[in-house]
Amino acid sequence: MAPSRPRARRHDPERRERIVDAALRVVARDGIAGLSHRTAAAEADVPLGSTTYHFDSLDELLVAALRKADDTFGRALRESTRSTGPGTDLAALLARLMGEWLGGERGGVELEYELYLAALRHPALRPVAAEWTEDVTGILAARTDPATARAVVALMDGICLQVLLTDGRYDEGYAREMLARVLNATV
Known about the structure:
Elements lengths: L14 H16 L6 H8 L3 H7 L3 H12 L2 H11 L7 H14 L2 H12 L8 H16 L4 H21 L5 H13 L3
Helix pairs in contact: 1-2, 1-4, 2-3, 4-7, 5-6, 5-8, 6-10, 8-9, 9-10
């Protein structure tokens, strides 16, 4: 009998990322309740053991998915504020960015908010949700003060959630006016 050789291990450095992408697709299609190691593995076309190898828990997989999904608006905000001067109408800029974001691929926006709001039930997601808020607040604080920046982020979240939850139409003029009120308020 010939000695058995150890089985060659398949090198697949992108597997973890494919699993995260698959988790995002599952959540987009079936919601967070539809995500499991098994559904992520099936969607990524990898063995179930691969998901548990890369992610000890479902919360770990959700954290990775939220980190990947939540930077769309922040990235657009960073790029826009870098390319505009200090005299730029910040309320108009933010209202335009929100309109572009909400007017784009709606499923992606809904996915970001679903993962963001999942932090209510999944404490492991809270630090990631807080990082998103802190990142956007930090970008805005460079153009205003930290307290106003936090208020602006809260207003933008509220407007976006109202549009998403009511299937309403985004009103850029209204958003610009409300943002200007917060940005120009004096205490």
